[in-house]
Amino acid sequence: MIFFFIEAKKSPRIFNTTCHEIKDATRGKSSKHVTVNLENNTHDRVDDILSQEIAEKDVTYVDSRPIKNGKLKIWCENCHFKKPARSGHCNICNACISVRDHHCVWIDCCIGSHNHRSFIITMALFLFCGFYGFHLTMTTVCTPEMYLGWFLFPSDCRFLYIDFQTAVSFVAACYTLMASMLMLCNFIYQIVLISQNTTSQEFHQASRRGLRTKCFTVKNNIHNNGFIKNWIAFIFTRREDTGNIP
Ligand SMILES: [Zn+2]
Ligand SMILES: [Zn+2]
């Protein structure tokens, strides 16, 4: 669990280096803004990039980037570069993140293309430890009973407060259960999103644009390749920015 926690804390693929390159490139230049095109590493004027912005009516698909003033914003004003599809700017990290999901306050790190898998594994292990720890504590502080021949269940809990250690163990187990239940809600939410190959940021944008259904699915999701293919892609590859979207 610690290994995957450290992996999740590693870089989610931040475009910071490029941002610094851009700031260096813009220094002393007569043109107001110059940016680096990530695909071919050429310098383009920001006016050219702004002219590529797509009108809201033509954006029929789900995109992680916001729509402002009737246009899809592909230019990050903080990092000064053209945001690839599926990326998003984080105000806490002050950087654009590749395939950004969200900023996790618990590990103080953005979840992006390079650490999303480790983040999910960390969550799963945390849940296992939380529920197993709760069950283990409860069957210790209470007198357990065997159900169906294999499952121990706390049965007689009359002596929970018989001594200090037992009482503390019981209260700690209750807090662990509460934390695990909250984590479970988040985990299910993540599973639903990954199953349709979308991110929290894309889901949020879809909600704002009325592209969300009542079943927590996203309409016109061009990244969705079906349940099995989405999971195979998530487990065995790193989700990269899609090149077929401007
Ligand atoms: Zn940015
Ligand atoms: Zn962040």
UniProtKB/TrEMBL annotation:
<keyword id="KW-0333">Golgi apparatus</keyword>
<keyword id="KW-0472">Membrane</keyword>
<dbReference type="InterPro" id="IPR001594">
    <property type="entry name" value="Palmitoyltrfase_DHHC"/>
</dbReference>
<dbReference type="InterPro" id="IPR039859">
    <property type="entry name" value="PFA4/ZDH16/20/ERF2-like"/>
</dbReference>
<keyword id="KW-1133">Transmembrane helix</keyword>
<keyword id="KW-0808">Transferase</keyword>
<keyword id="KW-0012">Acyltransferase</keyword>
<keyword id="KW-0564">Palmitate</keyword>
<comment type="similarity">
    <text>Belongs to the DHHC palmitoyltransferase family.</text>
</comment>
<feature type="transmembrane region" description="Helical">
    <location>
        <begin position="167"/>
        <end position="189"/>
    </location>
</feature>
<dbReference type="GO" id="GO:0005783">
    <property type="term" value="C:endoplasmic reticulum"/>
</dbReference>
<dbReference type="GO" id="GO:0019706">
    <property type="term" value="F:protein-cysteine S-palmitoyltransferase activity"/>
</dbReference>
<feature type="domain" description="Palmitoyltransferase DHHC">
    <location>
        <begin position="74"/>
        <end position="205"/>
    </location>
</feature>
<keyword id="KW-0449">Lipoprotein</keyword>
<dbReference type="Pfam" id="PF01529">
    <property type="entry name" value="DHHC"/>
</dbReference>
<dbReference type="GO" id="GO:0005794">
    <property type="term" value="C:Golgi apparatus"/>
</dbReference>
<feature type="transmembrane region" description="Helical">
    <location>
        <begin position="124"/>
        <end position="147"/>
    </location>
</feature>
<protein>
    <recommendedName>
        <fullName>Palmitoyltransferase</fullName>
        <ecNumber>2.3.1.225</ecNumber>
    </recommendedName>
</protein>
<keyword id="KW-0812">Transmembrane</keyword>
<dbReference type="GO" id="GO:0006612">
    <property type="term" value="P:protein targeting to membrane"/>
</dbReference>
